[in-house]
Amino acid sequence: MAPDLPAIRALTFTGERFTPEERGPIWYEHWHRYAEAARLARGKRVLDAASGEGYGSFLLADGARFVVGIDISSEAVTHARARYARPNLVFTQASVTQLPLRDASIDLVVSFETVEHLSKQRDMLAEFRRVLAPDGILIISSPNRPVYSEEAAGENHFHVKELDRAEFSTLLEPLFPRQAWFGQRVIAQSALWAEHEDAGRVAFSILDNGRTVQHMQPVPPMYFVVVAAAAGVTLPRLPSLSLFDDGALTLWRSYAGAYDRQQHSAWRALEARKDADKWHAKLIVAVNDLASERQKTSVLVPRLKALETELAHSQAELRRTKHGLYEANDAFARESAAYGEV
User: Fold this and answer.
1) Is 99 within 8 Å of 127 (Cβ atoms)?
2) Domain that holds residue 234
3) Residues 229 and 307 placed together within one structural domain of the fold
4) Residue 236 has pLDDT above 70, yes or no
5) What is the DSSP letter of 190?
6) Within a domain: residue 196?
7) Which value, to the nearest 10 degrees, does the dihedral of the CA atoms of residues 204, 24, 168, 55 take?
8) What DSSP designation does 117 have?
9) pTM of this structure
10) pLDDT band at 1 (very low <50, low <70, confident <90, very high)
11) 3-state secondary structure of 90
12) How many Cα atoms occupy the beta-carbon half-sphere of 101 within 13 Å?
């Protein structure tokens, strides 16, 4: 199930920042990242850089020593302060390129989906390095441009500079040479897992042209999540595979519902096609019958005209015969009258 959030008017979703009222793949992407970051935040001094609506800072503060959420939007900060209250959580309006924090005052910097919104990306990382303790950890995410924008053939006009893997790695290398990389993408697959702790390595089995192939990753990642630190710092470990759900199988149920609707539509289309084929067959019979009748009619029309001509001739002969009969009767009457006078 979705986390219980304080009841307050939601921020309007513009596409620039995620709000927890939104559903679909974006919900899983954002909550999953923060759920994993929360593992690293326990007992730590945490900066949530570009904290946005505030839901992630609120989640991190559940186990952290304290959390500072910083965002450049006054609207977002005002909303977060009103909606999320914990004694170890504060929200401050500021830029991630000019953090209002002391040097080495933070143990963990969380920066999700921020770097692509900036042109001064190195300035942001320099500020993260400054406020982090020498053994501090950065967990940062960024869209994988070849998949996020190029493969999807879409464009997010809020993004200033998206990166591919090599560019992202090059950007991090000078200040955060220690890196552990994770790929992230919302996918629908069958999950099979061991119930014992020494489960061993993760395997991704993919069916390719009738053969099972083992891959290092299930699909090209939509996002990269990197846990990074200075040279010589031991990176904290996250699970090799992390599956995330809302506890109600909402994503699966949405897919299953859409699939069922598609199947019902397909069946309705098939039935409609059967009906159309049936009526088409009947129409063909009717057209053939009409053509046959027209052919018969075309044969009868000349005969009918001949009969009409013959009838007209007979009627004319009848009229002449009647006229001759009338004249004969008149002549007979005159002859009879004359004979009677003699």
Assistant:
1) yes
2) 25-188+220-248
3) no
4) yes
5) -
6) no
7) -120
8) G
9) 0.69
10) very low
11) strand
12) 32
